[in-house]
Each structure stands twice: as C-alpha cells, then as structure tokens.
C-alpha cells in the first residue's frame, strides 16, 4: 500500500517536538508516521505534538495508528498533544474517545504553552 | 480542471454520547457509551488476522460489499447480529446475540456501533459491557501481486476483570476472540471459493491491568444477560431471522 502522507518533524521548545502531518492518515501511513515519531521522541522529549492543520483525509486505519502512537508515548512516559484539528476531525476524536487520551488544542501556541 | 479532493466525511459516524438502538432487546446497549481501549481493564492487544484470496477473481470492494451485506453469515454458528435497515453503515448499531462463546450459559446480548464504513473497510466500536474495549476494523486490499487480502484488526483490552480472566483461561480465551475471527475469515474465503489458511499476528502491547476500570464489571453484558435471561425466556419470542444478518423489520 502506498502512502500519501507527508510528515515533517521540528522542535518547538525545550523537550517539545512537533510532527506536522500533511495529506492522509490511513493504515498505509504506518511507516512515515512511526519514523517521524521515532525522530521526535528522543530521550529528552517530554511532549510530542501532532499538527493536523493540513490533514485532508483519515480513515479508521488512521485512528488505529494514532492509538499506536499513544501507546508508544505512554510507554516512553511522554505526553501526546494534538492541535489544528478542524471540526470534522475533532468529532472523530470525540467519537473514538481519543480526545480523552490525547490533549487537543486549537493551535500551536496554546498547545506548547500547555506542555510547558 | 482541479481533481476533486477525496473526503472522508461521509464515511464516519457522528459522535454519540450514549447509544440509543431501536431494537427492543438491547438493554445491554441502550444508554451505554462507547468504550475505547484506553477505558478497558485488561492487557492491551494488537491483533491482525488475515487471509489471501489466492486464485479468486474478486476485488477488495466486492469482498467488502459482500461482507457488509452478509456479515452475520460468516460468523461462527451461535453468534448473530441484528442490524437495522441501514445495514453496516456509519452510525448504525448492530445488536449481538452470542451463544457460541459459552454454550452452556444464556446468550450474551450486547452490540456494536459502526463508526466507519467505506468501500474497502468498516470499523466497529463496542459499548460499555461488551467483552472488549477498542476498535475493530475489517478491510480488504490488493497485494503487490494483485491478490485480494482480507483482514480483521483489533486494538482491544478486555473490558473488566471477569472478561480478562476468561481471556487467559485455556480454550475459552482463544475461542472468545481469536477463533471467532479465524473462522469468520475462513468462512468468507470459502464463500469466494478459497480454502485459505489464516495468518495471525498477536502482540501484547501493554501488560498492565488498568485497575481503575475494574468497576466496568458492573456493566458486564455476560452477567447482565444471565441475570435477565429468565425474563427474556418468559417474553413472547420474536420471529427468528432466516439468516443471522437479516435486517430487523421496523
């Protein structure tokens, strides 16, 4: 399965890293997303944030990947945050109760402030 | 002309605070919230069951269309799912009657919500009280050589300590949740003329018991079904379905 997921990792302050996601998150996004998380979640990282502003498509396989990321974060005692979800994707997080496990913020600034 | 952007909006159910099925025999589903894996008690498993439909001239879309239409027909004998007129579509609630897991006990009445459905996959989430907490995804895709591959993927925990105990019990645990999908995939493959071997990958992702969710046992569908069985037996019987996936008349 080919992936139409584009990811980019960047720092956002001490111990905080952001994974920007563009395009799709489906089961085929496993490799780029997991590699991005490995890059972001170094031993000094205490918070990983996923930027969903440019997310265009997500199916239930994509939700499964986010749950996998959540498990990895919990294991490494890192917190997972999300920002930039539009109303549709915020509803999906609510439907799947992911919003109870991943802290959701409207934008990067509020997310980073909360993580400090 | 710009290519029309793919959108997933039509494939997802809307958020629901508590389930409200139309089926009158749904006391273990009505008023319940969906239960994510994070809200379960037992070990967290990531499971994939897969068959290759080698030699079958069937596309992933055709497989999923058939599976949606006849979901209950491919289940193990003793398990039934009653769906409303919409069938397996986003937002629909399927009511489950399971007599297969514990044949000597009354049928366990529970259900699932279809949280996602498109042409090549569909996903369920279960309500509080169901044996397992977490999403279940059924999908089909074409492998590199063009063979259609069908799979069931779970990311689940047992909901409460009793279900967790059963999961670790010899014979019962494997039948409860692993054999159900192995037999389903074998039955589905046989429908398309393939005598398939099921590949499985089961990983324990988290071996911790989440004791704060031990209280989930209050909603255990197995216990509640057993306690309410005498009442159900005394009620006038509904006309039995001709097949397990027959839509319930409204």
What's the short story on this structure?
The complex is a heterodimer of chains A (116) and B (250). Chain A has 116 residues and is an alpha/beta fold.
How much of the residues of chain B is beta strand, in percent? 15-25%
Order of helices and strands of chain B: EHEEEEEEEHHEH
Protein chain pair with the most extensive contact, residues per chain:
A-B, 27 and 35 residues
Strand order of the largest sheet of chain A: 1-2-3-4-5
For the record, the count of structural domains of chain B works out to 1
Overall average pLDDT of chain A: 92
The total strand number of chain A stands at: 5
How much is the average pLDDT of chain B? Answer: 85
Oligomer: heterodimer
What report would you give on this structure?
- The complex is a heterodimer of chains A (about 120) and B (about 250).
- Helix content of chain A is about 40%, strand content about 30%.
- With about 120 residues, chain A is of the alpha/beta class.
- Chain A has one domain (about 5-115): Transcription Regulator spoIIAA (2-Layer Sandwich).
- Chain A has a five-stranded mixed sheet with strand order 1-2-3-4-5, with helices on both faces.
- The N and C termini of chain A lie far apart (about 40 Å).
- The model of chain A has no long low-confidence stretch (mean pLDDT about 90).
- Chain B has about 250 residues and is an alpha+beta fold.
- Chain B has four helices and nine strands.
- In chain B, strands 1, 2, 3, 4, 5, 6, 7, 8 and 9 form a nine-stranded antiparallel sheet that branches.
- The longest helix of chain B has 20 residues, at about 170-190.
- The interface between A and B is medium-sized, with 27 and 35 residues.
């Amino acid at each position: 399965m080919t992936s139409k997921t584009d990811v980019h990792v960047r720092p956002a302050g001490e111990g905080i890293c952001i994974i920007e996601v563009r395009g799709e998150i489906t089961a085929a996004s496993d490799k780029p997303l997991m590699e991005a998380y490995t890059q972001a979640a170094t031993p000094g990282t205490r918070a990983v944030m996923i930027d969903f502003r440019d997310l265009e498509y997500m199916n239930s396989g994509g939700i499964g990947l986010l749950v996998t990321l959540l498990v990895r974060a919990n294991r490494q005692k890192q917190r997972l945050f999300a920002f930039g979800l539009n109303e549709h994707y915020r509803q999906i997080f609510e439907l799947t109760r992911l919003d109870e496990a991943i802290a959701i913020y409207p934008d990067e600034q509020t997310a980073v402030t909360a993580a400090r | 002309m710009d290519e029309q952007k793919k959108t997933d909006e039509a494939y997802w159910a809307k958020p629901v605070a508590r389930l409200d099925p139309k089926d009158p025999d749904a006391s273990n589903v009505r008023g319940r919230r969906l239960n994510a894996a994070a809200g379960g008690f037992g070990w967290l498993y990531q499971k994939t069951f897969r068959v290759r439909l080698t030699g079958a001239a069937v596309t992933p879309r055709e497989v999923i269309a058939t599976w949606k239409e006849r979901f209950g027909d491919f289940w193990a004998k003793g398990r039934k799912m009653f769906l409303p007129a919409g069938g397996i579509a986003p937002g629909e609630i399927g009511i489950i009657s399971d007599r297969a897991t514990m044949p000597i006990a009354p049928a366990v009445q529970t259900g699932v919500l279809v949280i996602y459905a498109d042409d090549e996959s569909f996903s369920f989430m279960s309500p509080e009280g169901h044996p397992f907490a977490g999403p279940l995804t059924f999908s089909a895709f074409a492998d590199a050589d063009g063979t259609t591959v069908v799979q069931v993927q779970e990311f689940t925990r047992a909901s409460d300590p009793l279900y967790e105990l059963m999961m670790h019990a010899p014979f019962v645990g494997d039948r409860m949740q692993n054999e159900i999908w192995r037999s389903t995939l074998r039955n589905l493959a046989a429908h398309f003329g393939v005598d398939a071997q099921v590949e499985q990958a089961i990983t324990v992702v988290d071996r911790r018991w989440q004791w704060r969710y031990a209280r989930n046992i209050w909603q255990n569908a197995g216990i509640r079904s057993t306690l309410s069985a005498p009442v159900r037996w005394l009620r006038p019987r509904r006309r039995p379905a001709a097949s397990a996936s027959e839509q319930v008349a409204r």
